[in-house]
Design brief:
Helix content: over 70%
Order of helices and strands: HHHHH
Shape: globular
Strand content: under 5%
Number of helices: 5
Structural class: mainly alpha
Number of strands: 0
Number of domains: 2
Radius of gyration: 17 Å
Length: about 130
């Protein structure tokens, strides 16, 4: 358990650094298009998560420590969208189409709504509302 926590933490640190460096490079190349950096890490992270999910089923090399470092730590810090994609895939893989669809729709809608509510609450408290 202790080693797993350390591996997840190290993977998370590496993922956060990669996200930051990607943001600097993409913003430097495309100006203030910060959404392009987010899109880049979300797509790359989802691609890597898909590859890891497939490799876990065919190779014993990708055991819990590797999974903890790469899938939970690195990809979790690089992008939460990769975990979102894996969860959606798992719903559909189990044949839970309605639950998967509701998960996709509610995750996006509720996250955007949560952001907006948080923004408005702080603006109201600050008297900017």
């Amino acid at each position: 358990m202790g080693w797993m926590i350390l591996l997840v933490g190290l993977g998370g640190a590496f993922g956060a650094i990669c996200r930051y460096v990607t943001s600097l490079r993409v913003t430097g190349s495309f100006g203030q298009a910060g959404w392009m950096a987010i899109l880049s890490v979300n797509v790359a992270g989802s691609l890597i998560m898909g590859m890891m999910a497939a490799l876990l089923t065919v190779s014993s090399m990708f055991n819990d420590p590797v999974r903890g470092f790469v899938m939970i730590g690195f990809l979790g810090a690089l992008t939460t969208f990769s975990s979102f994609a894996l969860d959606a895939y798992n719903f559909f893989q189990r044949g839970e189409m309605l639950a998967g669809g509701l998960y996709l729709l509610s995750s996006v809608c509720l996250s955007v709504a949560g952001f907006y509510v948080g923004l408005m609450v702080v603006r109201l408290i600050a008297g900017q509302g």
